[in-house]
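@channel anyone free to eyeball this complex?
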Amino acid sequence: MIVVRAPLRLSFVGGGTDQPGFYKRAPGRVVSTTIDKFVYLVINRTPLIKKVSARYSASETVNHPSELQHTRIRAALTDLGIESGIEVGSFASLPAKTGLGSSSSFTVALLKGLHAFKGSKLDSREVAEAASRLEMELIQEPIGKQDQYAAAFGGFNMFQFNADNSVEVTSMFLSYKNHLGLEQHLLLFFTGLTRAASSVLTEQREKLDAKFETYRTMADSVSEFAERLAAADFKGLGGMLHDGWQKKKSLASGVSSSVIDRLYDAGMNAGAWGGKVAGAGGGGCVMFLASPETHTTIRASVAKVAHENNLQDFQEIPVHFSKSGAEILYNGDWAVHLG
Amino acid sequence: MQHYIKEYLEREIEMLRNLPHEEIAKAIDVLHACYERDGRIYIFGNGGSLAIATHWVSDFNKTVFSHNLKHSARRFQAIRVPTTESELTAWANDVGYDMVFAGPLQNYLQDSDVVVAISSSGNSENIIKAVELAKSRKIPVIGLSGFDGGKLNELSDIKVLVSSSQGEYELVEGAHMVIFHLMTKYFKDYLDHASKKQ
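replying in thread with the prediction:
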């Protein structure tokens, strides 16, 4: 049995510039951090059961991986030539579609685990590339590749996506004071609204040409973000998140909605310096940066709006940043491949 | 005499000034991630370097948490290899001195672990064998070397090289101890700071 996990992530600036439509024309740049919430997968070898099982919110047992309903597991097993004698089960700290990159965390953990199952080990870059290939080429999701890299590498990073498909990964090396300081100023709320990133991203992709310059300023804001972070200027970072969010809303109609706008405005009116919706938008999580003294007021104001709009799954998500990327926690299987 | 002392210390200061800050930062991040996933840190070296490894294990497992012994349920799990002198002599006598680290390490190594190897020359055969074992299993290797770094610096994922002339063992080992104490102090300060915030 193999137990593998990959972290979820919070992206701060530059989201959207990780799509090929942008980075083929100008370097895409994103700053994100992984958090202490994970997707876990268990991969079990069943040599005496000539079937393929996948257990997630549903449970499937089939004779051949091509019969699976689960798109990512089907694509990965088929691509790797694993035809039977395997069970794959998934577990997560948070629901799907929260805007925290969980579907790519799933793919990264899956590929890290399946390669270990086959007796080979992928390093961070190899698993990020494999996950990007699966999602963007094999199953043709209209997504970028920041999430695969964030989940594979772990920690606070700046990613640059180049036209030749190469990706530069620069660790931000936050001192513990800035690391804990940023955490202390950050509030994250799950709106209770879920959406698949692909619906919003498809619209963004169609409008990319018209909005090219907006994307470019978003990519360029990454170095200012890094400087303000190094200087522990949390108020300035809040302002940057706010500007980024205003730009992002202009990219496609589905990025925000009237309910999301009301939640966001409630936080801002209660004293937040700035914030954004995590991920592609359209639902998921709203994040704020604010002075810790205002957190109680912001919590109450945002919760009130959520209640008025009948968002039953709304809740605050306490969050700490993590240094961990995709990792094999347990591999009772490795000796299978020796000698 | 005073002139000799002054020259030695100046040389040590010069080495400390040229330490690779980014590689040390990477080492801290790798140790932090290992802590988060509850992995283990295996550390080893020959002679004085083995003493440094033992010293650091005690600091990292206990001193880091000295202000937070009750607060921190999760601790670092740093383990010096081999863990007993009996194992060391058994491997040396029965198999060969080149296996005193790789031999015992193979019993323990899991995918969630980290390896820290110390060798001033960077070329001790027993160190390289253990590092090659870790590499073959894709375990992250933090290598602390001296002189020109030797093979250890080539193989390591995190290359903490104290650049010096060949044979400057005392100066290199002195700098190695400073780096280990820096890492200990970093996590001690981090945990102190984190516990005050809660």
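from a first look: The first strand of chain A starts at residue 2 and ends at 13.
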